[in-house]
Amino acid sequence: MLSFSRRSFAVAVATAAVAAAGLAGCASDSSDAAPDSPAAGAGSTATEAGSAAGAGASAAAGAEAPGAALTVKDPWVKAVDSGMTAAFGTLVNTTSADVTVVSAATSVSPMELHEMAMDNGKMVMRPKEGGFLIKAGGTHELSPGGDHLMLMKPSAAIKPGDELTFTLTLADGGKVEFSAVAKPFAGAQESYAPSAAPSMAGM
Fold first, then answer.
1. Fewer CB atoms near the end CB (10 Å): N or C, the chain?
2. What is the architecture of the domain spanning 70-192?
3. Percentage of residues of the chain with pLDDT beyond 70
């Protein structure tokens, strides 16, 4: 009986030892695998974040800035020591819809949109009724003797080489900002209508 008990006890101890070793192995496997899971999760999160950032960048790049429908090509300003002057250039509509410029502004002077027209047999400049319409995909010239952006009362002399910044407002509320350099120019002799307003010789 004693011999059987000892043999049974030895078998039990051996079995317990094998089970303990198996548990230790499982614990070791679990601890080794644990770091991989967060890392994999972090990689997935980083990929998702990168995808979201890329999508945001694409959306931002694809967004059209306000006023981008219209550009101003070759703008310039007539240099003057005093009195009224004007800005010129080519308005370019890059869209498939008509665009209308309804006003212009600059920090150095009040402004008006002007056209040239016959008045009592004489060519005069006057405010442009309804603004400047630029047809879809078309252009509109602002030139001496034609439509132009009028600086009514500059606060100081505008010398050759001076750079002025202008903002055009469109009928839909969009804004177009551009800069123009002043240069000397002697052009046609036109008067401002109504006749009570000052004339602008040399425009």
1. N
2. Sandwich (2.60)
3. 58
- For the segment 117-130, the average pLDDT, to the nearest whole number, is 91
Q: Which residue has the tokens 């979201």?
A: 52
Tokens of 127: 């405010």
- CB–CB of 113/155 below 8 Å? no
Residue 110 has pLDDT above 50, yes or no: yes
pLDDT score of 174 more than 60: yes
User: Where do the structural domains in the chain lie, given as residue ranges?
Assistant: 2-62, 70-192
Residue 68 is predicted with a pLDDT of 61
Rounded CA-CA distance 189/182 in Å is 19
pLDDT at 184: 95
- Distance from C-alpha of 187 to C-alpha of 201, rounded to nearest angstrom: 8
- 3-state SS, the chain, equals CHHHHHHHHHHHHHHHHHHHHHHHHHHHHHHHHCCHHHHHHHHHHHHHHHHHHHHHHHHHHHCCCCCCCEEEEEEEEECECCCCEEEEEEEEECCCCCEEEEEEEECCECEEEEEEEEECCEEEEEECCCCEEECCCCEEEECCCCCEEEECCCCCCECCCCEEEEEEEECCCCEEEEEEEEECCCCCCEEECCCCCCCECCC
Over residues 31-54, the pLDDT tens digits come to 444 444 444 444 444 444 444 444
Please give the Cα distance from 45 to 180 (Å, whole number): 49
Residue-wise pLDDT for 52-71, tens only, equals 444 433 333 333 344 468 99
